[in-house]
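== Folding the chain ==

***
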Amino acid sequence: MWRYFDERGFVEVETSVLSPILGGANARPFVTHHNTLDKDFYLRIATELPLKRLLVGGLEKVYEFGRLFRNEGMDTKHNPEFTTVELYEAFGDLQSMRELSEGVIKSVAKNVIHKDVIEYDGHEIDLSKPFRWVSMAELIKEKVGIDFTANISFEEAVALAKEHHIEVEKHHTGVGHIMNEFFEKYCEEDLIQPTFVYGHPIEISPLTKKSPDPRFTERFELYVAGFELANEYTELNDPIDQKERFEAQLKAKELGDDEANEMDIDFIESLEYGMPPAGGIGMGIDRFVMFLLGQKSVREVILFPCMKDR
């Protein structure tokens, strides 16, 4: 992966693991305390916001392989600390990120394990073909017949959720929250062949540029073997819009969403100086290795995974 990115002019950087602000992703953090400053810090849940600041500072192509920490559940796809690569390109967009992520996955498979068909959990996953490109709304419509591109009110969405045995939580305040719950319950695990799912609701995408339909964003996730492998955006670079998204996240936090972002005034100020239009990629390295090696648990590819006591 390093060679693939370096050959395309990207610069590898390192950013701080300690962060005074919770941001860059939706996740519960680990909290620590800095004695000299007498201030709490978070172990970072993403490298996104520092890397975007580098775009503001004039670096046009950057990436970082970073260790992240999320204080949430453990299972075959999740470990509290894990490794990702995040990459940002000035003047990139959703389509250039799509080409870059598909290209690097095919390149690693070809040059490292010398395969383009991966045996995984009883499936033959073919990386040689173009990856499927489909909207979240279209997948939900295929599975349950509900069209979330129609003018569905929040009350109607809540009623549909109850009909389909989906729990609506207090911080679910928009149709997009419920749309995402439908996707996770009915669609995600069936995405076996490599699939780009685009058109995420704005409620769950606080750092992403709006689509022409402002209910949705220019974001996609890459799924393979029934789990998410990468998350990619056309990045939001409008400081006014970004502040409004952070304010919406604060409201969600007040309603009990422990994974919501905080207000990052410093980042908003950097956008006011000017961040170029950009595309971004975030990919889970542990999951990618797990997939390439045909392993069903991420613990099989981490030397010292977090485990329960005996």
Remarks:
- Residues 26 and 234 are 17 Å apart (CA to CA).
- The chain has a mean pLDDT of 95.
